[in-house]
Amino acid sequence: MAPVILRNLKSVVNKALAPMGVTITRADTHDWNDVANFIPFEPTMAAARAAGLTVGDYIDSILNEAPGSSQSTIDKMAATGVFAGRMDNVVEIGPGTGRYLEKTLKACKPGRYEIYETAGPWSDYLVKEYSVALQPTDGYSLAATADASVDLVQAHKVFSTVPFMVTCCYWHEMARVIRPGGWAAFDVVTESCLGGDVLRAWARSDIRNGSFPAVMPRKVAVDFFTSKGFALAGNFVVPMKPGSTELFVFKR
Ligand SMILES: C[S@@+](CC[C@H](N)C(=O)[O-])C[C@H]1O[C@@H](n2cnc3c(N)ncnc32)[C@H](O)[C@@H]1O
Fold this sequence. Notes:
By secondary structure, the protein is of the alpha/beta class.
């Protein structure tokens, strides 16, 4: 069935089901509302294999249409000095396929790499593939990580995706666990990403309800981390289909 007919059919059925609080979604496509479960594991791995790509390259090149974008983000972080000093303990929130994790492990050799990830199949895969430590993930805290114990906490395409309260709670936790001299790297969709024709591009996308894309005034991000003793080391607008998101790198 043509995608447009399927979409219309789905929309009619969902309107009929709405009073019951029920919606239908295709099992083989991504449900943009379901940010905690991420894209389906098996079909994504199979599609990457079929394309002859690593899963990270598949996400960059095919799904996101931005070849090399995850390496480019790691290079930007490196240019601000993130990987120049001591890097014993790294924490990543929402690593997903591990496309940034894999490149971070090439940029530095931390003794310990902790992940907090809500999508079970992806976190299982990362633990097996990269021997990282999966921490119990309640979806808003870094409870298993000690105060002032971490050199870098990073979260890519997470705070630009999840509801405000998740971001708000994780930011406080980042401020708790990052040591003096440590780093925070993450992106949010700020006003720097919403000029020109970008609103038209978002409106024309298939995305409707849900927290993605999650918008945050850049002043709120900068003021929060500054108030916790961080200084802005770099900020970069990076692609996030069909628009962009702003990567912030803070040093404490
Ligand atoms: C848009 S994906 C980005 C994945 C990966 N960082 C990347 O850029 O390819 C968001 C990731 O955050 C995870 N996630 C969503 N909500 C979360 C939460 N509350 N705590 C931890 N991880 C979460 C999802 O399962 C997914 O892996």
